[in-house]
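2024-03-11 09:14:02 INFO receiving multi-entity request
2024-03-11 09:14:02 INFO entity count = two
2024-03-11 09:14:03 INFO echoing inputs for audit
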Amino acid sequence: MQDFELDERLKRDSVAVATLGLCQIRLMRDGRWPWLLAVPQRAGVTEMFELAPLDQTMLTFEINEVARALSIATGAEKINVAAIGNIVRQLHVHIIARSEGDPNWPGPVWGFGTAEPMSDAEIAALARRIAEALSEK
Amino acid sequence: MQDFELDERLKRDSVAVATLGLCQIRLMRDGRWPWLLAVPQRAGVTEMFELAPLDQTMLTFEINEVARALSIATGAEKINVAAIGNIVRQLHVHIIARSEGDPNWPGPVWGFGTAEPMSDAEIAALARRIAEALSEK
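2024-03-11 09:21:47 INFO inference complete, emitting structure
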């Protein structure tokens, strides 16, 4: 069995926030939106339906926990959840906090403009708020 | 308890293909991509994490069945799955067949251009292929 190894582009564009039972939770380095990735730690999987049934259930549970935590941590109006992967094929699920008036609202975040850099302090502060919301069940 | 009623815009923009245990499966009237919606028949729900735990599991199961069927029916390179809902707040999950060279590949389908009309015959033919793929487990 092949070992899971995080895709190089996901590694470059995001930082680890938490590790759950199945997924690494990562924060995208983009100051425009609070934007997380849930990456199931399974090698060679591209589509959600390729995961084993138990992993599919775990993924749903973890996505929904993270989405709820992100909603609480940010007070966002709407959470966007998506598995797209047209470019990076390693299965990864986007979980993004959206609010009226944010860049490209109500359009999607993908393929829109370029990432806005965040300082290490900004990343650490947001990561901490999310980790705290995740631990408050 | 409030009765489920399909949002007027979803009703106008799509046609029913199948009814599963939780979701209505609908085909978008847009000839640019084979594009389905899974709409959980639960009133007043906007976010996936607001569904009851059993419904969350059902939704995952149904999304993945439909995504696999769409992949088989179309031979698409990648299936895109997303719950966005910034405009229509009734919870609905997009399941879209994408292939290299399709309109806006590898970008997202949402917020891109305008729908390309389909004839009733085209809609019926695609709906039938998808329903057949869904029934072949």
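2024-03-11 09:21:48 INFO post-check: The interface with chain B takes residues 46-49, 56-57, 59-61, 63-65, 67-68, 71, 78-87, 89, 98, 104-108, 110-111 of chain A (CB under 8 Å).
2024-03-11 09:21:48 INFO post-check: The longest strand of chain A covers residues 14-19.
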